[in-house]
Amino acid sequence: MVREVLRQEPAVSLLYLGDREWAPYGERTLHEVRGRAELITTHLLAAGADTIVVACNTASAAALHHLRRRHPDVTFVGMEPAVKPAVSLTRTGVIGVLATPATFQGELYASVVDRFGAGVEVVDAPCPGWMELVERPTPGDVVRKSIDGALRPLLARGADVLVLGCTHYPFLRDEIAAAAGPGVTIVDPGEAVARQVIRTMIPSEDEEIRVQVTGPVDGVAERIETLTGLAIAVENVTFGHSDG
User: I need a labelling partner for 224 at 20 to 30 A (CA). Which of 103, 115, 120, 236 fits?
Assistant: First the structure.
């Protein structure tokens, strides 16, 4: 998401917080994720954030409505699987959504399918472990095997559009496209969400990108540079736990 925002508008001030201590969210309960999202929001507001991007489909599914209710004066931009554009693109009437197991449990995802999925078959494809494929150097054959396993049932059911329902998955786009074949369209909501972020954020005279992580920082800066080309120092932050 940061990469897409900077591609559209390089002159911005951004603070990115990666919650390595609690990752992956997709394997936690919605209650746990909601409590953690509230804790992180408090931290970001104290750091001066005026627009908060919940740049995680799982966290958006678990906490976006809650955060907007708790902080009505703050602008929140969330992630939701791009079912609406996928429906307009399908020829077979079958679309597959690639996401974490927790994303499919949230009220946000159910609302998206109810609003935009009428008349098509929306097939959920949980992809546990894909976040780790991105964040940790992984042999290519391991990546391909995991992707092939997730896509095979979708393709067998006739899916001709695949929705990337996690902000990590665009980094696997080439591998997903190779496994899916030329007749399958891949939809990434990142570009549209980045446009919304730029529209809603308050202009800043500063042009600064800061990266903070909970948990260990070892290898994070190197991985960011490999994935995005950005050389950025990484700060460690620690704050307490919350049950939501």
Answer: 103
Give the burial string for 102-132 (b: 16+ CB within 10 Å, else e).
bbbbbebbeebbeebbeebebbbbbbeebbe
Calpha distance 234→223 (Å, rounded): 11
| Dist. CA 178–CA 201, nearest whole Å | 36
Per-residue pLDDT tens over the stretch 165-182: 988 899 999 999 999 999
Catalytic residue at 56? yes
Task: Please indicate, yes or no, whether the overall pTM of this predicted structure exceeds 0.85.
Answer: no
Catalytic residue flag (residue 166): yes
Terminal Cα distance for the chain, rounded: 26
Helix axes 57-70, 107-116, angle to 10 degrees: 100
The correct CATH number of 2-79+191-236 out of 3.40.50.460, 3.40.50.1860, 3.30.70.20, 3.40.50.1220 is 3.40.50.1860
Out of 166, 176, 180, 234, the active site residue is 166
CATH number of 83-188: 3.40.50.1860
pLDDT for 111-155, tens place per residue? 899 999 999 999 999 998 898 898 888 899 999 999 999 999 999
Beta-carbon-side half-sphere exposure of residue 14 (alpha carbons within 13 Å): 21
Cα gap 179→144, rounded to integer Å: 8
